[in-house]
From TrEMBL:
SUPFAM superfamilies on file: Carbamoyl phosphate synthetase, small subunit N-terminal domain, Class I glutamine amidotransferase-like
Catalytic activity: L-glutamine + H2O = L-glutamate + NH4(+)
Subunit text: Heterodimer composed of 2 chains; the small (or glutamine) chain promotes the hydrolysis of glutamine to ammonia, which is used by the large (or ammonia) chain to synthesize carbamoyl phosphate.
Entry keyword set: Amino-acid biosynthesis, Arginine biosynthesis, ATP-binding, Glutamine amidotransferase, Ligase, Nucleotide-binding, Pyrimidine biosynthesis
Pathway: Amino-acid biosynthesis; L-arginine biosynthesis; carbamoyl phosphate from bicarbonate: step 1/1; Pyrimidine metabolism; UMP biosynthesis via de novo pathway; (S)-dihydroorotate from bicarbonate: step 1/3
EC number: 6.3.5.5
SMART domains, A to Z: CPSase_sm_chain
Organism: Theobroma cacao (Cacao)
Domain Carbamoyl-phosphate synthase small subunit N-terminal: 51-181
Protein's name in the database: Carbamoyl phosphate synthase small chain, chloroplastic
Job of this protein: Small subunit of the arginine-specific carbamoyl phosphate synthase (CPSase). CPSase catalyzes the formation of carbamoyl phosphate from the ammonia moiety of glutamine, carbonate, and phosphate donated by ATP, the first step of the arginine biosynthetic pathway. The small subunit (glutamine amidotransferase) binds and cleaves glutamine to supply the large subunit with the substrate ammonia.
InterPro entries: CarbamoylP_synth_ssu, CarbamoylP_synth_ssu_N, CarbP_synth_ssu_N_sf, Class_I_gatase-like, CPSase_GATase1, GATASE
Gene Ontology, cellular component aspect: carbamoyl-phosphate synthase complex; cytoplasm
Amino acid sequence: MGMKAVGFSLRINPSICFTQNPPKPSSKLVRCSLTPDGAATGLAERPWKLADARLVLEDGSVWRAKSFGASGTQVGEVVFNTSLTGYQEILTDPSYAGQFVLMTNPHIGNTGVNFDDEESSQCFLAGLVIRSLSINTSNWRCAETLGDYLAERNIMGIYDVDTRAITRRLRQDGSLIGVLSTEQSKPDEELLEMSRSWDIVGIDLISGVSCKSPYEWVDKTKSEWDFNSNGRDRETYRVIAYDFGIKHNILRRLASYGCQITVVPSTWPAAETLKMKPDGVLFSNGPGDPSAVPYAVETVKEILGKVPVFGICMGHQLLGQALGGKTFKMKFGHHGGNHPVRNLRNGHVEISAQNHNYAVDPASLPEGVEVTHVNLNDRSCAGLAYPSLNIMSLQYHPEASPGPHDSDCGENFVLHLILTYWFSVFPF
Ligand SMILES: NC(=O)CC[C@H](N)C(=O)O
């Protein structure tokens, strides 16, 4: 009665072009914005700050935004992540090297960052794209604000950008390369050209994120956070973990389950690994195109059959190739904390944390390789086993950092499975 229905209240300036249907790549630029333009004077602080950054996508769309963190110009592939929280773990996940992570949850930064949630020693991603940057931080573990954290690590972030519209674009047309810039002197056309002349396919990104020499891992999941360790606190198993961009929580979870772990670089020779006589070898997650790292596939091949192995994400993709299979690039991949996966061995459905743009093509795998898990959103291969060679692998993240713990508990407790499969009940 006299009241207007108010729907989703994005303040969009109707005079500025905003399209739901993305234009196909053309040389034309389409400018999209939620906030008026402003020079990067630094005078206007958030939330009153004017737009001082641009994200130019290879499809010709230009997204005006406000910057936080570092400034400059950076190219990368834009992917969207549907996790509600866990942005610090996402920022420090080395698998995001070369990518801009766009968070679909509109409100980011409210818990700041802390000392404990780091998944690696630095941020390897190209940048962070969010809708709304929390103007204050409140958490008992907070050590600093998200903006300060990114600035110190020289990582660019933008906010006040229509993340829903960009996500629709990525879902409809697939992953896009983008250029993020705070440099007002660079015309849109130059940034567009930059985005179109860069590619992430076929590039070895793991060598840039792997450790340079072997080291022993000591940290366990803190008892206050340990949701399940079955009381295994003695170091029982010797594990070599190949670091293709390994997340610390994989190591923490294995250590909590009694593994004594040596982390080795991606180029560590298989012969050296076998000389160390481990009980099992873990091939970790890692960034980029799994078909661009044939040397890592060779290492995996040399180890297969000689010692039980387990692969996570990139490790799973390398194992798939070592078994004779092929990987392919997905339309926009899986990035988030709520992907349903069916364990085909017991019929159980696990809600899983995922972060990948490539997948193993099950049709390319030789006979004897078993697809053990399927992503229920798109039926893609989410897990493999080859019992006669003591191989097990998962395309997703059983360490759940961030993410649900389904894969880390009960019968589906994946890391538990590694140990039981590897060391006790695996049918050798
Ligand atoms: N998390 C990962 O290991 C990612 C694997 C690979 N880089 C992909 O995008 O598919």
